[in-house]
Amino acid sequence: MFDFIKSLFVGMDQVIIDVLTALSPILLLFVLAHFIFLKYKKKRIITIIKGLVITVLGLIIFLQGVQNGFTPVAEEMGKILVGKTSIWVIPIIGFLFGISITLADPAIYVLVQETDKASGGAIKRKMMFITLCLGVGMAMMLTVLRLIFDINILWIIVPGYIVAITLSFFVESDFSSLAFDSGSVVTGTMIASFILPLIIGIASGLGRDPQKDAFGVVGTVALTPILIMLILGVLVRKRNKE
């Protein structure tokens, strides 16, 4: 039991250093801005300091969990899926993982809520949420199929972005911005900490080169929600004209 608890803290010193290094420029800029023109009152500064402390602790706990939990477990899970499961079932499992990870990512909830507010309810939360879930799920399925058939990622990314740029001319400008924002939001913490190691494990299990084949998952995940949101934008614009 003691060894297990001790293992949870392995490498935490480096995680703490990394978090403090990443946040220190932001803190420095805030201090300079405060003394130059912000000049916040003492009560607000205390609130900001509390928020900063919570942020630092949260990042340390999360990254420590990723380092000692998510990443090794996800990679091992990918290898086990290849060894214990039919190769044609893995794309379906990847689709379900994509949906699950989207549901678990807090950044998605923020994006959906803010989009609903900014659009005055024109873009419904439920509609956008389902769209993003399907987009990430399809990206995961496509990535696994790409690994199985050894397809070069350029055959997916290049035509995909050509279609995305073309579709952006047929939707409202706000919808176009929203679509590309969706692509960046879905490739957040959960994709980097769980999905990427999972795909690395699947690639290793299939005998592919993880460095060449697995890392394309982020680009694919970023692309599919963009395409789906733009297609949705075309349909919404057509409906409004009728």
Radius of gyration: 21 Å
Shape: flat
Helical segment tally?
11
Order of helices and strands: HHHHHHHHHHH
End-to-end distance, in Å?
Answer: 66 Å
Range of helix content: over 70%
How many domains? 2
How would you describe this protein?
The protein has eleven helices and no strands. With 242 residues, the chain is mainly α.
Briefly characterize the structure.
This protein is an all-alpha fold and 242 residues long. Helices cover 84% and strands 0% of the residues.
Secondary structure blueprint with pairings:
Layout lengths: L1 H6 L4 H27 L3 H43 L5 H15 L1 H13 L6 H25 L4 H14 L5 H14 L2 H17 L4 H4 L3 H25 L1
Features:
flat, mainly alpha, 242 residues, single chain
